[in-house]
Amino acid sequence: MQAEKIIKKEIEVLPISPSQIEGVWPLCTFMIAEAIKYSGNYAEPKHIKDLLLTGENQLFLIFGSDDGIENKIFGLATTRIFHNPNYAELQGLICTGKRMDLWEEKLINTLETFAKLNGCKKIKALIDIEQDGDPTGTAVLDIDGTVNKIRNIESGAGILASVSAQNGVELKHNFAADSTGSPLLLNVTDATPDIASIVGGNGINVTSTSNYVTIDAEAQPYAQVSVQGNTGATTISTAGTPVKASATYVVGIQSGFTGDTTGKIVYNGTSARVAAVHVSATFSPVAANNQEVFIQVAKNGTVEAGSKITRKVDSAESANASTFFNVSLSQNDYIELYIGNDTSTDNVVLIDAIVGIVN
């Protein structure tokens, strides 16, 4: 009966001499090819083999069993001895394999022993580093010859750099909303805070130009038209029904409104507003006596019922009436003076009048 072969459950790091390279190379070529591929394909496996055969590079095989059932190759490492002007150092070139937790420490100890035996003062691992991402950005790794530095990420204006609970670098804004008034930056504790838009209210203009916002009050609108010494009569077709007062008006100073010689005043502003309309008018019936003549403010051809003011007057006399009324205006709304006769259809002359609008 054949005795069962006992396999020791142990992993060893074996230095391979140049004379042994040909024998172990079939076990190594795939792992070396894979390692080179992830380093930018700087060489072919055969180039590494040539360096191992000459002794310019050294090979270390990680071999053994982790289960006591079979032996296998767990990994490998290659090195070279580099002679600096003042001392020699052992440089690690390739390190690849599986279950590194089982042999990493043994590999380090083996390389330390090998380095000392060959008069090396240091052990250095050579790593290929390439910049990734936008080439115009600032790299975290400061590549500086043989000593590579990791740049600290610092807090800047409005930016806070810190270490997260998962030990990562966390960058976040450092803004705070003042408790007084209404902040422009909303929900500042969220990952994506919102910036509130500025909307102009009644009489307020907001404009965004280049890199700044301008907030200013609209010019206060005003207008005035007037009549002096008019003799032309306004035709009254129906008693109690007002009509636009007929006269030739003089347009006075105005801003935000456009008046004309018919007495029509048009609002030009873009913001809705309430304006105060002031009217003072002198009038007389053409022929009849004891006529109840009235004036009213009209918007867009429709009289404002609450603005009616009445005076009783004879044809040989004149009377004066004044009215004041607040009117809601939107762009292109217009104001006019209407006149009427509650007593009869006797026509009425608007002798003098001033129609003014202020905000």
Describe this structure in words.
It is built from 3 helices and 26 strands. The protein has 359 residues and is mainly beta. The chain has 2 domains: 11-125, 3-Layer(aba) Sandwich (Aminopeptidase); 222-358, Jelly Rolls. The strands form 7 sheets. Strands 16, 18, 19, 21, 22, 23 and 25 form a 7-stranded antiparallel beta sheet that branches. Strands 14, 15, 17, 20, 24 and 26 form a 6-stranded antiparallel beta sheet that branches. A 5-stranded mixed beta sheet has the order 1-2-3-4-5, with helices on both faces. Helix 1 (21-37) crosses helix 2. The chain is rod-shaped.
User: What is the ordering of alpha helices and beta strands?
Assistant: EHHEEEHEEEEEEEEEEEEEEEEEEEEEE
Helix fraction bin: 10-25%
The main pleated sheet reads as: 7 strands, antiparallel
Q: Please tell me the CATH architecture of the largest domain by its name.
A: Sandwich
Secondary structure tally: strands = 26
Question: How confident is the prediction overall: mean pLDDT?
Answer: 90
**CATH uppermost class of the largest domain:** Mainly Beta
Number of individual domains? 2
Q: What's the number of helices?
A: 3
Look at the helices and sheets and give the structural class.
mainly beta
Shape: rod-shaped
The CATH topology of the largest domain turns out to be Jelly Rolls
First-last Cα distance: 118 Å
Rounded to an integer in angstroms, the radius of gyration calculated over CA atoms is 49 Å
How much β-strand is present in the residues?
Answer: 35-45%
Low-confidence blocks of residues = none
